From TrEMBL:
It comes from the Eukaryota. This is Alpha-1,3-mannosyl-glycoprotein 2-beta-N-acetylglucosaminyltransferase. Initiates complex N-linked carbohydrate formation. Essential for the conversion of high-mannose to hybrid and complex N-glycans. It is a single-pass type II membrane protein. InterPro entries: Glyco_trans_13, Glycosyltransferase_13, Nucleotide-diphossugar_trans. The gene is LOC105366822.
Amino acid sequence: MRNRSISLVFITLILWAIVTYFLIFYKSNKNKSKYKFGLQMNKLENEINELISINAQLLQEFNIQHIQSYNKYENATYKVNSLHNKNYSLKTREFMKVYDENKRKSIVRSDFHNTTDVSQPDQSDIDVPPIEKKFKGYFKIARHYGWALNEIFFKFAYETAIVIEDDLDIAPDFFEYFLGTHFLLTADPSLWCISAWNDNGKSDLVDLKSPHLLYRTDFFPGLGWMLTRNLWQELSPKWPKSYWDDWIREPEQRKNRSCIRPELSRTRTFGKFGVSNGLFYEKHLQFIKLNQQLVPFTKMNLTYLLKEYYDHAFVNEVYKSEVVAHTDLKANKITPLGSIRLPYYTRQTYKTVAKIFGLMDDFKSGVPRTGYRGIVTFFYGGRRAYLTPTSSWSGYDKSWN
Ligand SMILES: *[C@@H]1O[C@H](CO)[C@@H](O)[C@H](O)[C@H]1NC(C)=O
Ligand SMILES: *[C@@H]1O[C@H](CO)[C@@H](O)[C@H](O)[C@H]1NC(C)=O
Ligand SMILES: *[C@@H]1O[C@H](CO)[C@@H](O)[C@H](O)[C@H]1NC(C)=O
Ligand SMILES: *[C@@H]1O[C@H](CO)[C@@H](O)[C@H](O)[C@H]1NC(C)=O
Ligand SMILES: *[C@@H]1O[C@H](CO)[C@@H](O)[C@H](O)[C@H]1NC(C)=O
């Protein structure tokens, strides 16, 4: 299931698996709406591996901090910026180096006004089938996600949560992005998440001049994402024991639903030493461009992202683009301006072309990263490019992996 080279990194490095939760609470009464922001920082699962420390696996602690502040909706931007100005990213980096629980709490408190700390009560070791022993980290992560989301949605009764692993830097408009797109999640049942992440968000594959640009995607990106309690009510009874991110991408869970993702990522991982990120980080993640501008999403009309508007306009725009040979695009031999299209008809052509341009070439449950209706959008040599299946596309083929 998992790539062996990735598991190798897992067993030779000190592991960090910390997840941070920012929460948005949405409550509406007659003519007033209030947002409650919060931050739920959770566990530090710190394992030191057998190769490093004489067969010892130290599961240090699970620690959750939950930080929240009240403010009126119309003042959200102010609060969001004031949170950012305190340099959250820097603090989480510090946080990673601190083992003392109280010190950790105070680091986070210095960034946020109102903090609630919640600790994972289950510090026990976890049962893993012998054959998957080296993937134990994934089992712990899934257990922790399940527990933490139960707390957030069922105990604290939040309507909406933003999940962030704490090895992520966030963009200046991170909260603004989630606030601005929040209404889409409730208005459009064909959406099930908002994500801050573009899997193909490297500098040379995005339009750096379009930080406002957002897309729909059938590929669940994670890495800074927002979900609602309704979704959690649906997923929690069957939450898996491990590999939750691949599980959530299966058709049985996804049910044809999509996420919103930005052209320019609003998160960037510095987690070279995460449970799964070692080689993947070296090869790919470290090149993802983090947006640095403030886009006023809450003041923009984002209705175009609703399925009823988006699909028709997007598919039209894509399939009217001129078809070109990928070799010409690569060699910069295209004269007409405007968007272009690179058709693919097989799994192998997709992979070949994706590799040539430095796009992620993998599929999960048949869906290519960032794909929407099979279409993968990127920016190359100053123009918009679409990798497209046939225009009569009728669904993903799960055997494409
Ligand atoms: C927003 O918050 C700031 C700082 O607390 C305050 O000075 C300002 O009046 C608020 N604006 C609105 C519209 O509530
Ligand atoms: C936050 O800290 C980082 C790392 O030191 C620094 O590069 C960045 O400029 C800081 N950002 C703000 C808004 O202070
Ligand atoms: C902190 O959050 C709690 C829970 O939402 C709330 O009851 C309390 O009034 C808040 N305190 C401050 C100082 O904002
Ligand atoms: C998803 O969409 C495909 C193609 O449009 C359809 O055949 C399938 O039944 C849908 N699956 C679910 C679970 O809605
Ligand atoms: C917002 O965008 C939608 C879809 O593009 C459009 O139909 C609507 O008129 C726009 N609303 C405003 C206030 O501009």
